[in-house]
Design brief:
Helix content is 29%, strand content 27%. It is α/β, with parallel strands linked by helices and 482 residues long. Among the domains are: 186 residues, 3-Layer(aba) Sandwich (Rossmann fold); 96 residues, ANL, C-terminal domain (GMP Synthetase, Chain A, domain 3, 2-Layer Sandwich), CATH 3.30.300. The strands form six sheets. Strands 2-1-10-9-11-12-13-14-15 form a nine-stranded mixed sheet, with helices on both faces. It has a four-stranded parallel sheet with strand order 4-3-5-6, sandwiched between helices. A four-stranded antiparallel sheet has the order 16-17-19-20. InterPro entries: AMP-bd_C (IPR025110), AMP-bd_C_sf (IPR045851), AMP-binding_CS (IPR020845), AMP-dep_synth/lig_dom (IPR000873), ANL_N_sf (IPR042099).
Length: 482
């Protein structure tokens, strides 16, 4: 196949490639440092990356991929039991880390190599690697059992990044600012490998902060990638921060992913900046499936249309395709295309269960599709599809309605068994004013007026905060199982 990074394997120049705080590398410097990493890992099957939000992680990932070796990004916040499982399952020959990083006990039995971002070595030629050769093994946080390693081939990375370039008009002239973790596909594949494949540059904040976003977008950055918790903080800060509002107004593209961005935050950001946040939809196993297009109609609440090369369908519980795309009928999303993973490492059973006989991947995500093809996610099949009173109800739209209430700061919706309804709708609320939370009847009426009476919460529970994972997703199983 062609190189994943033509700007590095061709004639790398002195244009900016990576910047983490005050530390930066040009394309020529990155090519040399990646070559040094390639020399360290050559001939190995898999190597682990201690994936801190640092320059070393980005250099290590590029060097490993250029060498045709498989990278296994490790979350530095993983517990020892989870880390031990991942290491036992993936059996890395080496762990790459920044000099001075202290590694936890499970890694002490794995040979270590420090990444020197100023080292030099010949740039490996990754064009010798095959399309289906594994590039990454990314571990998914399983809802039951230990995490599974999704094997992501080189063609999936190339297909996704090229499809996003088409959808977002993404070029080498773009400068991306982000502050995402680098052990997941959002921060690593889209946020680091994406700019480098285009020949552009990325400025990583290290730690997200609205001041950093404002600073970078007002000094040449053109795009910002974030998760909903980041955009929520931006929306909260905007009324008092004119510099932030002006910086966002000047951005070419604002993208949110990893979870649904509440409509309330969409509206507050647009009102303050005149810019609309673009949403896209993907998974570890599929990379990116859909996106709102940069040249399309911005529509809050949708994740856009299938990306070039991606086939997408909605199916009923019996596996039959949804009869009509009417914006109301809920079905499970299934996808096919070059963006898909090849399977779960060492888990042929789980791999077989994830696909239909004719090759469609079962995402477990529930959605409706509008007549024009736009997809609206309503939640996960396991936790967000509520069957109440004969209706199939997506938790997402109820959460958006609740967030429209001024007394609600955060909201999550789940279902629980009910002898009469099958399942009753439960709202978990973090109130704006803990001393005076909105009442259950008030919130039920608020939802019923905006959506429909059968979508109103029957039970309301109040919390100080919602449990979230590292990517900002609400951990609903922690709510349900308490």
């Amino acid at each position: 196949m062609s190189s994943l990074f033509p700007a590095l394997t061709g004639d790398p120049g002195e244009q900016a490639a990576l910047r983490f705080g005050h530390r930066a590398l040009t394309y020529a410097q990155l090519a040399a440092a990646a070559g040094a990493v390639g020399r360290q890992v050559r001939g190995k099957e898999r190597v682990a990356l201690w994936a801190t939000p640092a320059l070393e992680t980005a250099v290590a990932a590029v060097g490993v991929l250029l060498a045709g070796v498989t990278a296994v990004p490790l979350n530095p916040r993983s517990g020892e039991q989870e880390l031990g499982h991942i290491l036992g399952d993936s059996a890395p020959a080496l762990v790459l880390a920044a000099p001075g990083d202290e590694l936890p006990a499970p890694l002490r039995g794995v040979p270590r190599a420090d990444v020197d971002v100023h080292a030099t070595g010949p740039v490996p030629d990754d064009r010798l690697a095959g399309d289906d050769d594994p590039a990454l093994v990314v571990y998914t946080s399983g809802t039951t059992g230990p995490p599974k390693g999704a094997v992501i081939p080189r063609r999936a990375i190339a297909a996704t990044l090229d499809a996003l370039a088409d959808a977002w008009q993404w070029t080498g002239a773009d400068v991306l600012v982000q502050g995402l973790p680098l052990f997941h596909v959002h921060g690593l594949v889209l946020g680091i490998l994406g700019p480098l494949r285009r020949g552009g540059s990325v400025r990583h904040l290290g730690r997200f902060g609205t001041e950093g976003v404002a600073r970078e977008l007002s000094t040449g950055a053109t795009m910002f990638f974030g998760v909903p918790t980041m955009y929520h903080r931006i929306a909260e800060a905007l009324p008092a921060d004119r510099e932030l509002a002006e910086a966002l107004a000047g951005a070419r593209l604002l993208v949110s992913g990893s979870a649904a961005l509440p409509l309330h935050d969409h509206e507050r950001i647009t009102a303050a900046t005149g810019r609309r946040v673009v949403e896209r939809y993907g998974m570890t196993e599929t990379l990116m499936n859909t996106s709102v297009r940069a040249d399309g109609e911005p529509r809050a609440g949708t994740v856009g249309v299938p990306l070039p090369g991606v086939e997408l369908r909605l199916v009923e519980e019996d596996g039959a395709p949804v009869a009509a795309y009417d914006g109301e009928t809920v079905g499970e999303i299934q996808v096919r295309g070059p963006n898909l993973f090849t399977g779960y490492l060492n888990r042929p059973d789980a791999t077989a269960a994830a696909f239909t006989e004719d090759g469609w991947f079962r995402t477990g995500d529930m959605a409706v599709r509008d007549p024009d093809g736009c997809v609206r996610i309503v939640g996960r099949k396991a936790t967000d599809l509520i069957k109440s009173g004969g209706y199939k109800i997506g938790a997402g739209e109820i959460e958006n309605a609740l967030l429209d209430h001024p007394g609600v700061r955060e909201a999550a919706v789940t279902g629980e068994p009910d002898a009469d309804l099958g399942e009753r709708i439960v709202a978990w609320i973090v109130p704006t004013d803990p001393g005076s939370p909105p009442g259950a009847e008030e919130l039920a009426g608020h939802v019923a007026r905006r959506l429909a009476p059968h979508k109103r919460p029957r039970t309301v529970r109040y919390l100080d905060a919602l449990p979230r994972n590292d990517m900002g997703k609400i951990m609903k199983r922690a709510l349900v199982h308490g």
